[in-house]
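Throughout this chapter, every protein is written as a compact record of paired, labelled lines. An example of such a record is reproduced below:
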Amino acid sequence: MSDKNLHTKQEPTSYKAVGRNRRPKAGKYFAAIFLLLVTCFTAGLGGGYIATQLSGTSVSHLFASGDGNAVVSKDEEDISSVASKVGPSVVSINTTAQTSTYFGGTQTQEGAGSGIIISKDGYILTNKHVVANSTRLTVITSDGTVYDNAKVIGTDPLNDLAFVKVDGVNNLTPVVIGDSSSVRIGQKVVAIGNSLGEFQNTVTSGIISGTGRPISAQEGTSVESLTDLLQTDAAINPGNSGGPLTNLSGQVIGMNTAVAADAQSIGFSIPINSAKGIIKNLLKTGKVERPYLGIKYLTITPEVAKQYNLPVKKGAYVTANDGSAVMSGSSAAKAGLKDKDIITKVGDIEVGERGSVSSLVSEYSVGESVPMTVLRDGKTMTVTVTLQTYAAS
């Protein structure tokens, strides 16, 4: 089971996301195929600073040493400087896939998305839905270099994340990863991506319109729950999926993935902190593994606190509709977490405004020990959780 919120509600507004942007191989591309977003609920992913090494080569430059979200100087507000800084780290991803037809046959479809370079030697972060079921991947860098040997090396089983590898390179330009947990409503941001699958490295700008947004995306019979998203009014179009949302320091704070249907300027990005733990582990071991806590919980709001008669108005209430909320043999179970515990902090960060439990856990990598502050029977205690893996598919 995933570390996801159990509290759901049906929204009256329909949504659609910037999906794979696939079209039949034959013919000119005219329109994207969208994901349908039908349900909303709360959970999330969180953040911090990470630096590690791969094969003895320092990658500390990959992660920001300061909080670029706080930058408001006029020089930093120059969108062109951000585009120049980040543009070389954004790639276009073209895909080929075989899909079933209504008549029982198959057809070849081509699609396009975007990706974010995270290492000199060819690791690229993108959306899972961009590369799903693909039989061939082609990566095109901002200078027009084409790599036909790209392959998917793993996906996040709980989020819309995938990792692609281009072999035989050691000169790509990785991004600088920022901290999505400290973004501010109204903060200026820049989105870059392969718009419509035709206009490579298109740059748009806007602001952060909201944080902690929950949606569910459906494509065919597949449903993907996306949580703790950043909402932005920067233009996001089909083909932008997998591309970066950056702050004005050029630090990546999100990955663009969805837009609201029948609305104006309502786009969504997965917060980059949701990928930090996996990135750290990937650059260290070459494996795509997600840290997994192993609980079911409700994100505490004033309404939830009233309903369950809880002594706090924010945090995570460990509970399930049926059975135990703590998965047997999980990291949480081994640490001694129990049903009806209230988790108020992960590390030194409070659960709530800066992210949910899942959000904050995602900063860490597999094998790391994380202190959590827990309220149990009116008493506050600290529980140390050693994170196990939820292996990627």
Residues 1-15, 23-56 have pLDDT under 50 and may be disordered. The CA atoms of residues 332 and 388 lie 9 Å apart. The two ends are 15 Å apart (CA to CA). The longest helix spans residues 273-285.
